Amino acid sequence: MADWHQVFVYGSLLPGLANHPVAAPYIRGSRQGSVRGQLVDAGNYPALIRVQPAAGRIVQGQWITVCRNGLAALDRLEEFYGLEEWNDYERVWVSDAMLPRQQGWVYVWPSLRGCPLIEGDSWLLYYRSKHTDWQ
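and the corresponding structure tokens:
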């Protein structure tokens, strides 16, 4: 029996974007959601920076349900090797900003790493504005 995991995706793993094919074979279901944080522009993909709840920043994305192998594939993509390891992204447990009962994993950066903040709450909208040739 497969173990199922909820993962919040907000960037290149969204449908239609470059890394969605990494997750697609493992996705059992998805639905819209949001988490507290702010996006930074790391070039062709974003990173989520966690902010204090009082700051009121929200990031839009999707909750996807993936099996254990899907979570492992996402860990490889995000270069998450485990607790107390050097990771590109950290995998942390969060609640949905609007539906607190919806909980799961999200990949985050602990700091800006010199990347500019994105003012909006959606990587998809920001990406479309950056790449005017994208449909």
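(Above: one complete record from the training split.) Helices lie at 20-23, 68-77, 123-130.
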